[in-house]
């Protein structure tokens, strides 16, 4: 099902997963629709809706609680524009992806609020730290579920308890976790969650999902909007503003149709396999990777306990981006970030794949 694997080992799900025939066929179906019918708006919108329904099934929410945008950066910016932040505080972590920090800083040029950064300790954050950075004036706490740098995983349910205890909303960036582990927004008590399709969700870039729980979304008046976020877009009324129900109000213009075709196919595949099954297998690969890296004497940037990490394992190497290229020449797709090489497997990988990749990586290190 993953034709790209015939001549290489793809271990880059923290960046881009291998592409399945299911997704490739969906992209072709959109091409065929353009060629054969020219314009099939009803079908295209059905695909967008179906992607949304599949995503809401995956995270256990109602489809009306999910908006479709183009990137996680878009999602955080739209959300921040909808909040009254002046005089308040926002809590961020030093492990957030840069686009989260940058969007908050850009917002600070418009509204006057304070930012508190929860520091990391060797790229992990002890849960007790949060109490020092969230207080009763905190309106929003932004956390990554899993760190893009080293796969460190946070206890979201506990973070929801801590932030809610101070009256803060919890925003979860799930781009490095969605598709690799179970996420239940209701059970975890998450207020806002964002993710895209390119990483463990087995899709392509160009589409992202913004979950805002209904009770909250209904109170928000976003200012980054579009006609697809209106109650009756096809009334074509430019003199009135009527937000659509719940999180639909965060939709902007014409949705990214080809990306929705791909997303719908990838999400169907994930839901069909079952996220629990995927999580169990990836935990097995994670344990295997930790054991082997220890045995082989690698210097690690990831936590050494499976329960503290997602499937990504980060190994400290010199000249990481150069090593990424050299690994590709040997047929291994791995991903460099700063001073690490990330090994990020998915369901199509075997222990043998990981062993072979680590052996190749060790070769570069021995050569210096
Ligand atoms: C955790 C996390 N958040 C956000 C992003 C950026 O997402 P986008 O490019 O869709 O804005 C990434 C990209 O690598 C990421 O890993």
UniProtKB/TrEMBL annotation:
Per the database record, which ranges form the Aminotransferase class V domain? 45-311
List the Gene Ontology MF annotations in alphabetical order: cysteine desulfurase activity
Q: What keywords sit in the KW lines?
A: Transferase
Name one matching Pfam family.
Aminotran_5
Its EC top class is: transferase
Write down the EC number. 2.8.1.7
Q: Which domain of life is it from?
A: Bacteria
UniProt keyword annotation of Transferase present: yes
Q: Does the keyword Ribonucleoprotein apply?
A: no
Extract the PANTHER family matched here: BLR3095 PROTEIN, CYSTEINE DESULFURASE
Kindly provide the name given to this protein in its UniProt entry: Cysteine desulfurase
Its ancestry begins with: Bacteria, Bacillati, Bacillota, Bacilli, Bacillales
């Amino acid at each position: 099902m993953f034709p790209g694997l015939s001549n290489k080992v793809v271990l880059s799900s923290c960046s881009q997963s291998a592409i399945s025939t299911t997704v490739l066929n969906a992209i072709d179906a959109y091409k065929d629709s353009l060629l054969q019918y020219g314009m099939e708006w009803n079908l295209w919108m059905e695909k967008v809706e179906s992607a949304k329904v599949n995503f809401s099934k995956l995270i256990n929410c109602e489809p009306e609680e999910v908006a479709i945008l183009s990137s996680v950066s878009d999602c955080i910016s739209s959300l921040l524009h909808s909040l009254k932040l002046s005089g308040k505080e926002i809590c961020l972590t030093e492990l957030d992806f840069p686009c989260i920090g940058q969007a908050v800083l850009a917002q600070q040029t418009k509204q006057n609020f304070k930012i508190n950064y929860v520091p990391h300790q060797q790229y992990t954050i002890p849960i007790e730290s949060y109490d020092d950075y969230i207080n009763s004036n905190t309106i929003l706490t932004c956390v990554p579920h899993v760190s893009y740098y080293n796969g460190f995983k946070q206890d979201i349910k506990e973070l929801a308890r801590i932030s809610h205890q101070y009256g803060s909303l919890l925003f979860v960036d799930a781009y490095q976790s969605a598709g690799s582990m179970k996420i239940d927004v209701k059970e975890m008590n998450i207020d806002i969650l964002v993710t895209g399709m390119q990483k463990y969700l087995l899709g392509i870039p160009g589409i992202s999902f913004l979950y805002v729980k209904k009770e909250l979304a209904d109170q928000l008046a976003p200012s980054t909007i579009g006609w697809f976020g209106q109650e009756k877009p096809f009334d074509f009324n430019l003199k009135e503003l009527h937000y659509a129900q719940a999180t639909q109000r965060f939709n902007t213009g014409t949705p990214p149709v080809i990306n929705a075709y791909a997303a719908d196919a990838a999400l169907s595949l994930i839901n069909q396999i079952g996220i629990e099954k995927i999580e169990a297998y990836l935990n097995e690969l994670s344990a295997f990777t930790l054991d082997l890296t220890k045995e082989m004497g690698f210097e690690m940037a990831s936590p050494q306990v499976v329960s503290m990490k997602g499937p990504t394992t980060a190994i400290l190497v010199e000249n990481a981006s150069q090593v990424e290229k050299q690994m590709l020449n040997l047929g291994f797709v791995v991903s460099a970030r700063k001073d690490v090489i990330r090994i990020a497997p998915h369901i199509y990988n075997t222990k043998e794949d990981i062993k072979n990749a680590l052996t190749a990586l060790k070769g570069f290190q021995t050569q210096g």
